[in-house]
Amino acid sequence: MFNFTALPPLSLYIHIPWCVKKCPYCDFNSHTAAEELPEQVYIDALIRDLELALPQIWGRSITSIFIGGGTPSLFSAEAFERLFSALRALLPISTHAEITLEANPGTFEQQRFSDYHAIGINRLSIGVQSFNDEALRALGRIHDSSEAIHAIESARSAGFDNINLDLMFGLPQQTAKTAAEDVATAISLAPNHISYYQLTLEPNTLFHHNPPPLPEEDPIADWQQQGQDMLAEAGYGQYEVSAYARDKQQCRHNLNYWNFGDYLGIGAGAHSKISHAGEQTITRIAKQKHPQSYIETAGSPENIISEERLRLRDIGFEFMLNALRLTDGFPTPLFLQHTGSPLSHIETALASTVEDGLLQRDIHRIQATELGQRHLNTLVEYFLPQ
Fold first, then answer.
1. What is the pLDDT confidence band of residue 109, given thresholds at 50, 70 and 90?
2. Which domain holds residue 322?
3. Residue 219 covered by a domain
4. Among 29, 117, 41, residue whose Cα is nearest residue 73
5. What whole-number percentage of the chain has pLDDT above 70?
C-alpha cells in the first residue's frame, strides 16, 4: 500500500499525431498527414478525452503543458486557441505554467509563430537534428540548414524567449568535423536549451529494418564528449543524460517526468501516470494509438487500451529509472513524496550501489557517481524487483 501525504506535481501532455513525412528513424506515434488535416474533429476529440479524465485529477493544478507529436506545428493557431479555451475552462492552470509546442523548421510560417505566442504558448522546441544538408537528407528531414536557422530566428522575432533545439550526433556519414560544426552552429544561435542525443536505430522504424551506414561507436563517443565540452564552455549545463540548459532554463515539463511527477496525457497514443490520494494508488493509462480510432472513441471507455496499477514492489525501479537520469540526482525526501513509499523500501539496493561505487548518498541527496552515469542501465537494474 502506498501512503501519499501529498500528491506530486501534475503536467499535461497533448499529442498531435501527424507529420508531413514519417522520418525513417522515428519510433513515435506519428502518421503521414493527408492533404487536409482534421483539425476541428481532432480538437473536439481532445476535449472529450480531457472531460472523461477530469474525475482522476479534480482540483489539481497543471504546472506545465507539452504539445508533442508528430508535428504539432502543422495545426493552426486557431485550432490551438479553441483547445486552450477549453483547457482553461476545465483545468486550473498555473499562472506561470511552462507551455511548450514542438515545431519542425519545414512546417512553419512567421505569422504562425507569432500567433502561437499570442495564445499563450511560451516555449518552442524546434526539431533541427543537424545543420548539415547531407545529414538532413540522410535522415529524411523535409528542411535544409538555412530553413532551420531561419526558423530559430523567426521564433525569436515572434517573441519566444525560451527555445529548445533538438540536435543529433552519430549520423550517417558524419565526421568529427561535421559533428563539431553542428554543435558550434547551435551554440551560435543562442537557444536557451539544447537536447543533444545520439541517433539510435529503434525497432519498428525504417532505419532498423534497413540500417544506413553509421560511424563506429568509439569515434561517436569522442564526438559526444567533444560536443559536451563545447556546450559546457558556452554555458550550457548538463542536467540530464541528453539535456543542456543556460541560465537555469531547464525544461520544467521533462523535469517533472524525471522526478516521477504525475502527468495526464490526451491525444492518440498518449500515456498518463496518475497518483490517487484517496485510493492510495498509482495508475498508468494508455489511449488508442491510431488517429481515426482515437477520434471515434475519445470520451468513452473504449478510448483506453490499457490501465495498470503499479505494484509497490515495482516502485523503486520505476522511480530510479527516471530520477537517476538527472545529473544532480534527487533530494532524498523526494522518494517518499512522489512514490508514497519510504526510502527503506529500496535500502538493500541503495547499499549495494553505494558499495559498488555507482551511487553516492547523504541525508540530503542521492545521485549517480561518474561511474554510475557511464553505466546507467546497469545502475538502474539494481532496483529491479526481486
1. low
2. 313-381
3. yes
4. 117
5. 99
